[in-house]
Amino acid sequence: LKLGDVLVQEKLITEEMLQQALTMQRTHRKQALGEILIEMGVVDTEVIQSMLARKLGIPFVNATKFRIDPQTFGLVSIRFIEKYSILPLYRANNTLVVAMENPLVWEPLNELRVITSLNVVPVLASRDAILRVIKELSRANEITGKQKIGDLARTMNMDVVDDAPEDSIAETDNTLVGVVNKMILDAYNQGVSDIHLETYPGKRNTLVRFRKDGVMKKYFEFPPKFRSALVSRIKIMARLDISEKRRPQDGKIEIKLSADNKLELRVATVPTAHGLEDVVMRVLACAQPVALDKVGLPANVLERIKVLAQKPYGLFLLCGPTGSGKTTTLHSVLSFINSPERKIWTAEDPIEITQDGLRQVQVNANIGWTFAAAMRSFLRADPDVIMVGEMRDIETAQIAIQASLTGHMVFSTLHTNSAAESMVRLLDLGMDPFNFSDALVGILAQRLTRRYCKSCKTSYIPSRDELLSLVEEYCAGTPLDSAAVMQAWHQTYRNQDGGFTLYAAGGCELCEGTGYKGRMGVYEFLEATPPIKSLIQHQASVVELQATAIKQGMRTLKQSGIELVLQGHTNIEQIRSVCN
Ligand SMILES: [Zn+2]
User: Fold this and answer.
1) Other Cβ atoms within 10 Å of 309 Cβ, number
2) ipTM passes above 0.90
3) For the chain, what are the domain ranges?
């Protein structure tokens, strides 16, 4: 189906107009038919676009609403992008989706296929929106682009005279401002979670390290004369008192990346020896939630959580240490039940993930706006679902239980190690065992483990001893029979030769030689079934709760982790380091 035919069919132009346009196109080969028709004044851009969208099934998107990955944007030269007003939107495997005003112009699309060696799929967008996004992104690119932090630092006068004061650089120096911005944007673009600025006395360099996927790595070393200026610059950005160096301070920095994408950093300064200060910044990218199906829950757990999360009332808890990914999972669960029929209030500190539809509240203990205070306000504000970022104290926990017993679904997190331990901890805090057991729906414990880089992991056939030690570790402290478990593994994981295949870390360019890339969740889900509720009422021990849970099919964190090993995602050392 061709555009011209569609327009004639819809009686938007006459057959004569079409023929006239086609004749003109023969002499102006480069011009698209749509453009010629617009120039002839017989149709306008909107008509052509809505036709394309309706008749040819090409979706129309609002280009300004996309979070475009700088790497995707960087796939094509800015010259090409500007020449054709084509905007790379996102990349999924071998497919690159681009926004353009008229997707029927084949020339640039073909060229793009050649340049990127990707399958290029066009979508429609208004020219204005495309141009606006291109302008924003190319400006951001100028700062983050090819320039290395070292080059940037070198452009500053680095010839330090021996007796020059170490703070010879002013915190207002333009290049210093650029250096700090560059450092923050590098961290953001590399998916770093924390930036650590570590100062040393005398002639020693100031070290900047990034934490990514839970692992620290050196980013850059600044000469000593940068020391004070770097710290002061960050303090100014975070609106902290730059003269206060003996007490720790907290603040935040907000950086606008584009019209509706901002970056937030939580800044903490810590006074160290020799009257110096370290700065640690947590990068909050205002991320979107991950779909619940994509967080990597085992199929049976995913199924149960979907059912339980939709209950009209109850208490659902996620537990794990800081940085175990529980906030991400919690938001994925909320996104699953986030619908126009539900009123969802959340109290968070900080708000790391934003979702349309949720009413998200940033708590601030300094002004008395605590989790407990937010909960009480929510209860007066007609909620269906309430999420409390953390149950830090007995007061919050008690309100949460009251709320769930009075007909609301309540979600929260705890800093506990396992699902069973969470129950005992809450009872120890002074929860009423009967109210708590009535309210509780389930507890999901979580850890994050490093996963192998897919492009360089290597397979091997494990020895019998290695398998036996795995199965022993799997069954340790549980009522499970190791022979039966081994048989079940054999059913699920055996390879073509009837044996097992495990994987070891390699090392390649993609993973910077580490053998690992990204992290994945390890889960333990305990559903509050009648037997579990009865144990809670009798204030049973962690061991009793755990044993009953395993009997009803729960897999512990360690067991789920060992299954990830058998599936070839990681190794037992990584699992041991996160699940004790
Ligand atoms: Zn690799």
Assistant:
1) 19
2) yes
3) 3-144, 149-284, 292-448+519-554
